[in-house]
């Protein structure tokens, strides 16, 4: 059996602008929806007042410290870094006709720094944030006009960075809008399914228009979608449980089906009919949706189970989703069940369903790290988690799945999305900051830093 990954396989990590950059009001940046969530996706929405502050306002100060961090990523051997552009740095309110030059210039500097070390940028256009101006003044993605605002933003950055960025993603975990509407589509959390799915439709059309724009402006570029990979197993082999798992997996696979195939699948038409949902789909929308993605990217943290048995249907929250726990799996400190083989299973399911290249753009373990007296951080639990998942990626490649690369989530400690905390750490690099915003922001290599360095240099041959 081959022990090394393919020569062309891309190795790296993934971050998001709103979780690392800080500098939330510098150089003309506008207020984003993320800026109104100082306690994370599951926290209440808070209107910003003069003089108040949130943990994400500084985050890890990547905006000013990116040269140091990129150098550390290069030391590990990264060949790819997934990051995002903060839409509000380019169009502060979202509906301007002219972009903010200072914001554009920042990403020029960032991509140039990555180029110094031959690190390929993989750039997400909208990662859990959008200009709050579009929400306040236009109703967010509930308004069809937002499609045009997003297309203008996408065309602006494609044109600016066409020689520097060849790999793009449209929306981060686009299916999460079903579970956190304000974060995903800028709608109130109490919005009904009719409103949410109409907003999602507008977002899917906008994604397709961005694909078209990328192909026009960056002819040698590739643009993909990004799914929250939330594979659900039937809790038992009862046919009712098997059918229920199929139906619930449709909830998120729907987003991939539309972006890869270019039309709404029959099961969603039935779902809309059964729930009294009537989506306004214009003829131009149908033509736009024909512009399908070049590859599929996804996050993978856990799997869950589904059952129709009311007594067994005891759900626990993991990531964004409520899932029935799998009795055969262990869990992290945050209750996320650990299922390395589920990653191989998911890769095979997506490959067989779409026959398009796959990119794992988020996978990692959030844990409480302890700094020893000598300053070292022995995160063997993180090494074990990542090792076991990467072994399963290798197995999937052996199965014949076309996998382009792997970017672990949070290669450097950052602010968590769910609750905006630092105590839940993912990184190979420790950042000295706590949940109260105290700390020096000094970067320190953890034990896993050197482990990942060896994995990359050996092209996976060092995995156990």
TrEMBL record:
Pfam families: Glyco_hydro_1 (PF00232). The keyword Hydrolase applies. Keywords: Glycosidase, Hydrolase. Signal peptide: none annotated. GO terms for biological process: carbohydrate catabolic process. One of its GO terms (molecular function) is beta-glucosidase activity. The active site is at residue 362. The keyword Transferase does not apply. InterPro entries: GH (IPR017853), GH_1_N_CS (IPR033132), Glyco_hydro_1 (IPR001360), Glyco_hydro_1_AS (IPR018120). One of its GO terms (cellular component) is cytosol. PROSITE patterns: GLYCOSYL_HYDROL_F1_1 (PS00572), GLYCOSYL_HYDROL_F1_2 (PS00653). Belongs to the glycosyl hydrolase 1 family. This is 6-phospho-beta-glucosidase. It comes from Winslowiella iniecta. The lineage of its organism: Bacteria, Pseudomonadati, Pseudomonadota, Gammaproteobacteria, Enterobacterales.
